[in-house]
Amino acid sequence: MTDRFLGIVLAVAFAVVVSAFVVPAAGAVSHPSRGSAAPGASTFVSGGAPAVTPPRGAAPPTAILTGAVPDAILVDPANDSAFVASQLGGNVTVIALDTHHVLYTIPVGSEPAPQAIALDPTNWTVYVANAGSGNVSVISIAEDFVIASIPVGASPDCIAVNPGNHDVYVANGGSGTVTIISPATTTPHVIATVPVGPDPDAIAVDTVTHNVFVADSGTGNVSVISAVTNTVIHSTIVGAAPGPFGAMIFDPVNQNVYVANLGSNNVSVIGGNNYTAYAQIPVGTGPSALAFDSAAKKLFVANHYSNNVSVISTKNNTLIGTVGVGSQPSTDGAIAFNSVLGAVYVPNGGSNSVSVISAASDSVAATVPVGALPDAVGADSTNGEVYVANQGSSNVSEFAISGVTFHASGLPAATAWSITSGVPPVVRTNTTTAHKKGAISFDATSLSLAYSITPPAGYAVAKVTGPRSPSQTVVTLASKPSTFTVVFGPLEPLTITETGLPSGTFWGLTLTSALHFGGPASQTATSSTSAIEFMAVKGAYHYALSAGPATYRISPAHGTVSVGTHPAAKSIKFKPVTETVVFEVVGLTHGTTWQVNVTGPMNVTIGTIGGQIRVPLINGTYHYTVSNLTSLHPHPASGTFVVLAPHPPLVVIITYSSIPTHAQAGFAPAVAAPRPIAPGARAATA
Length: 686
Prior knowledge:
CATH topology of the domain at 288-400: Methylamine Dehydrogenase, Chain H
Helix content: under 10%
Shape: elongated
CATH architecture of the domain at 288-400: 7 Propeller
Strand content: over 45%
CATH superfamily of the domain at 288-400: YVTN repeat-like/Quinoprotein amine dehydrogenase
Radius of gyration: 40 Å
């Protein structure tokens, strides 16, 4: 049997605005593992926003085992569930979105089944089309089991819920009919069987008139079924093999229906008011899946045989771009759009990956490896998590995507700037508008996004502002889309001049932003002259010595300088680094005055009463002499020492005694060497 997959969660339902959930009637059961919160409103697959779980990244994606050959997936964040239909397993696996664990396995039709799945959020039911057994299983979300099994036509392989009347439409590929099921009574039942073409492949619901469009791949036409009379009221010719795998979608903005024509490599546009195909838009080879971005007014068309995605503007129905993706994208009509993150997810069946396309830039933001032969995808718009059914490995891959948008500030209008991120690098450029704003968006598959910002000539980034203290090279992401502002400013010269260094001495400074986060990157510059010039954007900076002779230091050791809208200047002083030489006296009675005379690069004479004399000296070789008293004589009376700053203090011990020193006249040198008072201290040379 031809493997088909309805896009109610992937191609059709992403464009259908489903009605809001209602609080269940009294007595309705809410499964305890999901809590009892009432569901909320929705615009795509399902509604409501439960407590958000932050993304965990995607390296590697989580693998969740399901039944054999999973072929359809439905993500229902309002009830914290994902429903995965397995063809050869003949069952539906229910996965808890918060824990990513399998809650239940629910038997449905006989193999090969099921092939399509749809959600009615108002009635808390999931409908499963079972191609092998020719029936539809109705699953109660509250009770997690099949409450009804409804016979339909042969090989049902496409299913949709009409949000206007909550009727269910089932395309029977083997009998050329559409079965209409009503949930109005306690037991869902068939209310009509409508003949259409011999091979109905896709269904789209007009959310304005509530009429239903059915594409038939055998005749190349689209039938329109009235939601009031349940009869065909119009049939229009489109392209060859239209609506493969459910590739038809309704645009509620302009009330057009778009159908992909697999055999003629184009997309037909049908007016929702007159049911006439008034445009044919050429796309890639083998268009097999559609996703609609209502905010940007774009239609994304996955082309299975040309390995790319065509981007159509629904404003004027023209092709505006082509995005290369992986091998054999959308094998079973699978494609998904997350309106909150502005991301399109395209499973690549031939390369076992998912391409994540940014709807803002029409480029691939990430390529995520998943299981074998991915053929169905669903997105949880409340937290950015993505679920991919892998036919070849009989499991579901789960990973998270976070949306990131950067706005520009401080640039003149019509100024281009860019950001580079990803592996391989992706460069995105924007041009500021008359309001001096611009925006660049990325999708990230981890908890952070690393990037580099390229400003226009003459400008630099003054700061990056936003949540969670961003820097100019990386931002931390949250489960919801994050917005950051890149503040630009013109580069201004900053000149720092020095005094105190010998001419030709090599020195350098590091300039660091004084901002706590988001400020400019550090700069380091060197010079052998008396000045260093930086080019910096407006703001406050710290400076510190990064290079220079070890025998000099700047005073103060650290400083701050401000750069404004005019050239800035700062003067610093270098001072020689000194070593303290300590002369320690022993043998003098309290109150006795003694003196040391030091000669060399610095000449110092210091006297004191007892204790010690401390002399700070610059590097060099020195000679010292110690005063001789009337009855007491210093040992040693003189000597030499070398200062090698920076270094711990040098200690010289002077002992006074009544024994005369050698060559008593004046301050003749002594033979004895001074003794250090601490182990490891350098002794002076006698």
